[in-house]
Specification:
Arc Repressor Mutant, subunit A, globular, two-stranded antiparallel ribbon, 114 residues, mainly alpha, single chain
Length: 114
């Protein structure tokens, strides 16, 4: 699989990576959505709150599938109706590169790319 660059992703796809990472680190938990591997509706609810608007299934699941196809997210079946998602090592690396780039920009270091 070829390496994916942060510029290959949409903002929404970046947000999905961040939210999945947040679940894996225990950032998002409530009575309905527990566990470190979120299912699609948990991601949807978190992003609905982030955007103050409903994220439709027709936007959510195709973007999750794209991240899976790019090797950034792993999808596993929890039961016959529910899949759970987690970042792959490549997903974590891409997210780390993005965060480092953002921090460098905030520090005034705009040299180099991601």
């Amino acid at each position: 699989m070829t390496a994916v660059h942060a510029d290959d992703l949409t903002r929404f796809q970046h947000d999905l990576l961040v939210v999945i990472a947040g679940y894996e680190h225990g950032r998002y938990r409530d009575d309905r959505h527990t566990g470190s591997r979120p299912h699609g509706l948990a991601l949807k609810d978190t992003l609905d709150a982030r955007y103050d608007a409903e994220v439709h299934h027709g936007r959510l699941y195709p973007n999750l599938d794209t991240l899976v196809d790019k090797g950034l997210v792993e999808k596993q079946e929890r039961d016959q109706r529910t899949n759970v998602y987690s970042l792959t090592d490549q997903g974590w690396a891409l997210l780390d590169q993005r965060v480092q780039w953002l921090l460098n920009c905030l520090d005034g270091d705009t040299g180099g790319g991601e």
